[in-house]
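Entry 14. Structure prediction run on the chain below.
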Amino acid sequence: MSSSLFQHKLIHTGKKPYHCDICGKTFSESGHLTSHKRVHTGERPYRCEICGKNFSQNSNLSLHKYIHTGEKPYHCNICGKTFSLNGNLSSHVRIHTGEKPYHCEICGKAFSQNGSLSCHKRIHTGEKPYHCDICGKTFSHNHNLSNHKRIHTGEKPYHCDICAKTFSQNSVLSTHKHIHTREKPYHCDICNKTFSQKRYLFSHKRIHTDGRSHQCDGSLMI
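Output returned:
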């Protein structure tokens, strides 16, 4: 029996005769065992000739090269968007299907991306792994740390294309644009009054929830 036929038959039998002598994990093919062992040894024999980055798997090198070539061979057959990685396409398709296969075992909330689930879990654990190296403040999400650092650097990368005013956060720019468009997307569900900013809506709602703090009761102060 040829070695290739023997390897193929293991797929049907489920046998995994190749054992990692470091962690005990088993494999049906010797080549898979060889690739796996690089996890332990740190060996990365596959080198990108463009940027010099090394990889443990030849398949990972092939995927990496798309960064340099700009090639995006994976197409969404719903909207036509293209991707360099098949995994990114699979994640994208869930936007169209609404599929959310990743569930939080604590509160049951579902997510379309495993990364989103991991970030969500920090709400329950209180974990804040991202640290500001200037003031030491910690954050649960990396993008929150990036936004925070602009307090120290003074960077304001978001520009209003109407008045050229700059902002440190894109969300603040979006709110600012309501001044120009006169858009008032925030509605009071009690009196239907509209506001351009959420903070104005919050302030307004106090009139309904605690009128005494905003209205004169007619008594004289002596």
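Residues 130 and 136 are 9 Å apart (CA to CA).
Filed with the rest of this week's runs.
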